[in-house]
Structures
1.
Amino acid sequence: YASPHHGFAAFYTYLEFIFKADCMLHFGTHGSLEFMPGKQVGMSGSCYPDRLISVLPNLYYYAANNPSEATIAKRRAYASTISYLTPPADNAGLYKGLQELSELVKSYQGLRENEQRGATIVNSIIATARTCNLDKDITDLPEEDFDCKEIDIEERDNIVGKVYRRLMEIESRALPMGLHRIGVPPTAEESIATLVNIAQLDRPEDKIKGLPRIIAESIGRTPEELYRNSDRGILADVNKLQEVTLASRAAVRALVMVSTNSEGRVDEVNPLLRDMFSFFGGGSPWKKALTEAGFPNCNDSDMKPLFEYLQGALGLIVKNNELPALIKALDGEFIEPGPGGDPIRNPDVLPTGKNMHALDPNSIPTKAAVDMAFIVVDRLLEGLAKQGEYPESIAFTLWGTDNIKTYGESLAQVLALVGVRPVPDSLGRVNKVELIPLEKLGRPRIDVVCNCSGVFRDLFINQMNLLDRGIKLAAE
């Protein structure tokens, strides 16, 4: 917190008394006004945010995925926020040497049983992988002078599988597709990128399975099994996981394309989709896309609620409510409130153009966040245990924004590491913890060193107490 310099203070004074502005419009995330010295809440005349904004109405465009800092703008600068959509994120893809490496892997898949050519291609894969510095990630990658003719096909598959898995990790990293423009809904391509991410998640509270799970179950597998085997570098399952990923994208693309106009945008969701599974008597477009991708046996009863959910989410993604909300605010009208957070995990954040609020801090971590936290912790410790032993302690930084987006997942991860489970009461408030016996936990309790941000400390005082009780319970 630094006191404002004279130019900063003069700017607000000029707007109020010389320019005589009717309203102030800030663009976040985020400005400096709400972080000026003064009290955390309940501003007085001696607090800089109060003195600077004075009596000017303060409207604030704010990224929909950052309700924690938007809350600070509301508390300390009297802001009425108007949420805007974050840029859609798509797969990073591959380029240069990584693309060449991907082509070599595909060549090997067609010639793997050819002793001479298969081994030669694996030698090229090893050399190219080292050129791309993948040996920094794949610690047991053979040296360049290693001759793959000396090993059998199973060992060659393992080498190629580990390289391919790493390539798929790089290719699937999410990168923002440019910047969002206020009042300009996403294009169809941008909507596909967002919907693919929404479709990945299981939503047990809505009795909806994620699309990767539906596809995997159609071939008698589970996503967890595919991920686990892919992590181990089993080439067949690395391939299968990539096929599931590509099929998911194809199915979501088919859903969006039906409602896409000639300009590549979705004006409104096609009403024909309401009767999904009698689309011209030949099955839905996404069912056809999955069949063409090699997964014809996906369960219709699982797909129906998922694609109804995605259809609703698509309509909310493309709804243009950001500029109309600003016009209503400038006219002194009511701005509809709504939750902020990650629109992928919680599509209730959509449509944007709402006066954001966060969540009930007493309700986190939610059951879904706790379940996901235990999965993440188990995978983390499983990976670390492969290096020889469990860690004695792990450091965590707890951020307010992160825990609001994930409904307390980071907080639940800390409790999971020490072997403690949060327990909600009959009203859904999380105010108790229970110790998991070591026999059931199946591993040592891990010490955790927590560094909490100021926002987390101020917003989640009850969760700080929950952490304290959980750590003491484990220590005793």
Note: The chain is about 50% helix and 10% strand.
2.
Amino acid sequence: LNAGDILNGAKPKLHEIGPFTFELQVLRFNITWEDERNLIRFMQWPRYKFVPEMSQGDMDLEITLPNLPFWSVAGALDRLPIPKARGINL
């Protein structure tokens, strides 16, 4: 909602959305049977299908999320007792 303002130090304005429901569909292929070991080998490809009837909202909804790993590292670097390079401001 206010992604540009957050970069300038403002608090984020949050809005709860969802839930979104997905159904897991698994495609199995390259199936081989090993009778002597009672073993089945296969590869699988998981696929998640959106279930609109069980969801609040649609898949066209634009969601802005913070980059938590970046901000975690930036916060940790801010606390280190090292001189800051010129022109770099986190």
Note: Strands lie at 22-34, 39-50.
3.
Amino acid sequence: VTVQWSPRADSALLLTQTAVDSTGESYYGSTHLFLLLENDGKRPGFGSAVSVPLPAEAAAGGTGTVPIVGTNWITNPQINGPVPFAVISGRMPALASLHHGITAEPSFLFGRAHRNVMDVSPHGRFVVCGGYGNLAGGMDFWDRNKGKRIPRRVALNDSASGGGSYVTIKEATDLTVTSCSPVVGHQWSPDSRTYLVSTTSPRMNVDNGVHIYRYDGSLVGSEKLPWENSKYQPDKLLSAEYVPAPFPTELEEKSFYYYPDRPQSPPPRGVLELKGEAAKAALTKLSSQNSQSNGRKGNGGNAAPASAYVPPAARKTGGGGGGSYVPPGARKGSGTGRGGGGSLAERMRREREGSAANVSGIKVTKRTGPVGASSVSASVVGGASGEKSKSALRREKQRLAKEKAEKEAADAAERANEEEEARVKANKADPAKRAKKINKTLKQIDEIKKKKGSGVELNDDQKKKVASEEGLRKELASLGL
């Protein structure tokens, strides 16, 4: 049993694992996930336990119970509304999803991939879906507030000359990052701007070292790091972690965080962004340069063969090369018709580009049944993932206040009409009785006027009664008594 407390400490995730599946449907046992709440919304003062419903897509391609691969809370306790949590479920490629912090219903789907870890930045804005341990080390960097993968800007070689240019990578398949070494340790920096992965001993006794990625998945060059990974190889690095942020001072306690919550950085000023065919050509040239550089490193410094680099999607079926670069979004076919490779890498690519594309970046809007019984109705996210912004909450509050004021005005008008109808009926039933009551009220009005003349300040009820004098005298005259 594993328990994970929420950042507000008012709820927890309870993950149970059994070595044997009593139903006989799984050789690897079974897992179940529960959400424990301190206060039940329907019964204040009473706690409750909710079995977390998994998206129907998590059960695709398998039978029996859906395995739970990993869970994690969104780490920011100051976000609007309940604190959501993330779940990776299903058989590989597993499905990553975001769930509501009270109902536990899925609210957003990150997509299917070979991932087993969800790392959330300290401010809860950025999320990394990683495949570590016995997986290949793939990483997807997401902006949770926007519900999208973070685009990555790549500066070209001429950008150092003053003007420069860059290209923006936006395709999901191109944004996936694979670690250059097996990942043992992984951690977000306290300011949520960089992400650390490390290979350490004794888990791995080769290729020990630390690599830093920016929040968009771009690798920080080794020349910018204050250490040399070669000094830790092959097995001299035991651990690598960020130093925690200092505690906020008394003046900073209201902000909760020592470092501010910063969104994605804007595009650089004065630098040209290449688009269209120019961007495709620049990416192909950059890929060719990287391939030749990697070839020289692998051959002990000798130059790689002089053949031009051809992206995998542009290679012809017989391995003959040639053809222009086509971005993943413009490629035709589902993957089975492109190259037709049967290797593990080819199958993983087809799974990533095929089935994952159908459920990636999806906001779940409605559940129509239990897991496996029916699918969910979903729509592509264009904004925040399940959380309302401050301006949206303010507009909703103003709308509710306006509706409340209109309702109160309508109720007051309705009460006035009812009183008028009751008065008319009373006049018809017994005019003498009504005249006696009016005379009594007029006498009270005369006394109130005397008080006002002596300098006594009148309350609202007295002012209202004085204002009704003219109408009462007209009504008394109409009675004819």
Note: DSSP finds eight helices and 21 strands in the chain.
